[in-house]
């Protein structure tokens, strides 16, 4: 629909409810204009970049939902603390009063309060999935328990003073009444600050509570008059505390404002943690290119990884558009061994982001650090899967340019162990050369220890065969646990890639089959013309190796069960900046 027609349709369907209209329109704008990757070609001419607000005002209802989901657990924990503290206080006071031989009737109220507090504490501790309604019921019981205990104590103190009939009874009754004001002011203040609420609900609860001490005073005076035929109302009000300004009312007003301020601060914090239709949960990876967060789609409730990329301040519009096109192209890759990209955009602050699938497991670099060199059959197993993923990418004209162990993730998919996922297509990194070597900065894609010679000397000539070289380096590293070229800095490593010949893997690690070694060395030819020409050919050559089918799903499952490795997620394979 055209925008005008669409707006009219939404307005009619929502019954002219402005809140629903704003929510639906916001979702459509995000879904169609801002976060969908396969935008029709007509949209390409409208904007160069996809720009997203960190937290649009029109969909704050989603933020509020997140706030209250978090507040539900906060409320549960804090009620559990209050109930536990009340249980301890009642227990200690009961033991003390028992030793003082107080009347039996006092124990009845304390026993009831003890049972309520203890039961609430146990339920709130053990039940983590209580609904908000259930927690509110528990809140009512706990806070009513606190209030009734305060009322019982105030009445009993007053009766004890009246029964003693001491000369200073007037001052003692006024002090008890003032204590009544202070107690309820404290309860009001603790509730307003300690319990998460909107100011409207806080007002509905706290304002009636501000009247409680006056009602208690009137009730106490009435009971005393019925019991002892004494009118003590004037004596209880003889002190001016609470008049003309009521401490409980002042505490209620302050607490309502505090509840409003705290709720607003929490909402702002959740807005800051929002990115388009995603809620950022935890930081799980960090590198030179940016940060990676575990996130959740607000509507689908699907876990994913969000990678935030801060572009260089000197990056021109052409480079940014190129980055955008590459991420769009990556999202079109459908091979099961390529990490799935869900979404892409750019915030108003200029930070790029893309959402990808969240995978449990570890990257290849972590695996080799844990186990050392891999057996040839397992190495070939991984190389076949990665080369198969590269085949699809190369066929659509997409070059990875940074194949390395950190970008090959070992995971479990559909119950299959040792299932690889190739990460991070087409991400450009900046390599700054020392002033003694050059006065300019080169834009080089890749990691020096795994990049092809032409990536270091002629980055503009990088093609699919450069990925073949890098994958050969990964195979070399898997088989030997070592890198053939080393240096004190990235420039020395890149020069070694250009000028030095790698030592055959079999000279470093025994037991490497000759056919596997021949394929690896063929991938590592300096001249691209002499390498294996394509990922498809590399895959076919690897399948011919005698050990290509020796690593089975049964062996993979057995290894993972025996090792029980500490797993990370695919998103934690953050890129390391070359500097």
Describe the structure.
With 579 residues, the chain is α+β, with helices and mostly antiparallel strands. The protein folds into 3 domains: 139 residues, Phosphorylase Kinase, domain 1 (2-Layer Sandwich); 212 residues, no CATH class; 213 residues, Transferase(Phosphotransferase), domain 1 (Orthogonal Bundle). Helices cover 55% and strands 12% of the residues. It is built from 20 helices and 13 strands. The longest helix is centred in the first third of the chain and has 40 residues. The C terminus is likely disordered.
Quick structural gist:
With 579 residues, the protein is of the alpha+beta class. Helix content is 55%, strand content 12%.
- Total strand count, please? 13
Largest sheet report: 7 strands, mixed
Number of domains: 3
Q: Which architecture of the largest domain would the CATH scheme give at its second level?
A: Orthogonal Bundle
Which class of the largest domain in CATH terms?
Mainly Alpha
How helical, in percent, are the residues? 55-70%
Q: Radius of gyration, Cα only, in angstroms?
A: 35 Å
Which strand order spans the largest sheet, edge to edge or round the barrel?
A: 1-6-7-5-4-3-2
The low-confidence runs, each spanning 5 or more residues with pLDDT under 50, are 33-65, 427-443, 574-579
* Assembly annotation: single chain
| CATH fold name of the largest domain | Transferase(Phosphotransferase), domain 1
The CATH superfamily title of the largest domain: Transferase(Phosphotransferase) domain 1
Question: What is the 3D shape?
Answer: elongated
Task: Supply the number of helical segments.
Answer: 20
The overall average pLDDT, rounded, is 77
Q: Bin the strand percentage.
A: 5-15%
End-to-end Cα distance:
49 Å
Classification by helices and strands: alpha+beta
């Amino acid at each position: 629909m055209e925008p005008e027609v669409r707006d009219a349709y939404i307005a009619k369907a929502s019954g002219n409810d402005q809140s629903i209209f704003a929510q639906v329109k916001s979702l459509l704008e995000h879904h169609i204009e801002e976060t969908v990757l396969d935008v029709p070609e007509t949209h390409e001419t409208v904007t160069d970049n996809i720009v997203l607000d960190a937290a649009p005002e029109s969909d704050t209802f989603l933020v509020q939902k997140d706030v209250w989901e978090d507040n539900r657990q906060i409320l549960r924990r804090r009620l559990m603390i209050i109930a536990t503290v009340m249980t301890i206080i009642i227990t200690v006071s009961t033991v003390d009063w028992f030793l003082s031989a107080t009347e039996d009737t006092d124990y009845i109220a304390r026993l009831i309060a003890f049972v309520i507090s203890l039961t609430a504490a146990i339920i709130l501790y053990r039940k983590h999935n209580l609904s908000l309604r259930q927690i509110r019921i528990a809140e009512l019981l706990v806070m009513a328990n606190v209030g009734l205990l305060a009322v019982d104590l105030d009445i009993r103190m007053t009766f004890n003073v009246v029964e003693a009939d001491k000369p200073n009874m007037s001052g003692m009754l006024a002090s008890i009444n003032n204590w009544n004001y202070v107690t309820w002011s404290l309860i009001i203040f603790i509730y307003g600050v300690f319990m998460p609420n909107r100011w409207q609900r806080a007002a509905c609860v706290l304002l009636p509570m501000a009247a409680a001490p006056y009602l208690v005073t009137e009730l106490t005076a009435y009971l005393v008059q019925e019991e002892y035929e004494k009118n003590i109302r004037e004596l209880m009000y003889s002190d001016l505390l609470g008049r003309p300004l009521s401490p409980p009312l002042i505490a209620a007003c302050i607490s309502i404002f505090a509840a409003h301020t705290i709720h607003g601060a929490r909402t702002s914090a959740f807005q800051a943690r929002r990115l388009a239709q995603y809620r950022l949960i935890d930081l799980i990876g960090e590198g030179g290119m940016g940060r990676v967060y575990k996130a959740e789609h607000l509507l689908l409730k699907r876990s994913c990884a969000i990678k935030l990329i801060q572009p260089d301040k000197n990056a021109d519009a052409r480079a940014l558009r190129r980055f955008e096109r590459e991420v769009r192209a990556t999202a079109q890759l459908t091979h099961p061994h390529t990490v799935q990209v869900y979404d892409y955009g750019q915030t108003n602050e200029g930070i790029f982001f893309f959402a990808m699938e969240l995978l449990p497991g570890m990257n290849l670099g972590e695996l080799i650090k844990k186990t050392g060199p891999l057996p040839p059959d397992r190495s070939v197993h991984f190389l076949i899967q990665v080369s198969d993923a590269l085949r699809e990418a190369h066929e659509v004209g997409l070059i990875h340019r940074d194949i390395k162990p950190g970008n090959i993730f070992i995971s479990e998919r559909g119950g299959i162990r040792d299932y690889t996922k190739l990460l991070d297509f087409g991400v450009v990194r900046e390599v700054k050369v020392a002033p003694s070597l050059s006065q300019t900065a080169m834009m080089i894609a890749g990691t020096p220890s795994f990049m092809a010679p032409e990536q270091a000397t002629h980055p503009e000539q990088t093609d699919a065969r450069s990925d073949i070289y890098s994958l050969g380096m990964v195979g070399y590293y898997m088989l030997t646990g070592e890198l053939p070229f080393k240096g004190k800095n990235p420039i020395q490593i890149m020069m070694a890639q250009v000028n030095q010949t790698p030592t055959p893997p079999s000279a470093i690690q025994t037991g490497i089959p000759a056919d596997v070694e021949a394929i690896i060395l063929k991938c590592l030819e300096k001249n691209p013309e002499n390498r294996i020409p394509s990922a498809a050919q590399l895959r076919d050559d690897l399948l011919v190796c005698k050990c290509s089918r020796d690593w089975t799903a049964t062996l993979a499952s057995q290894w993972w069960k025996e090792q029980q490795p500490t797993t990370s997620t695919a998103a934690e394979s953050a890129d390391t900046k070359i500097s």
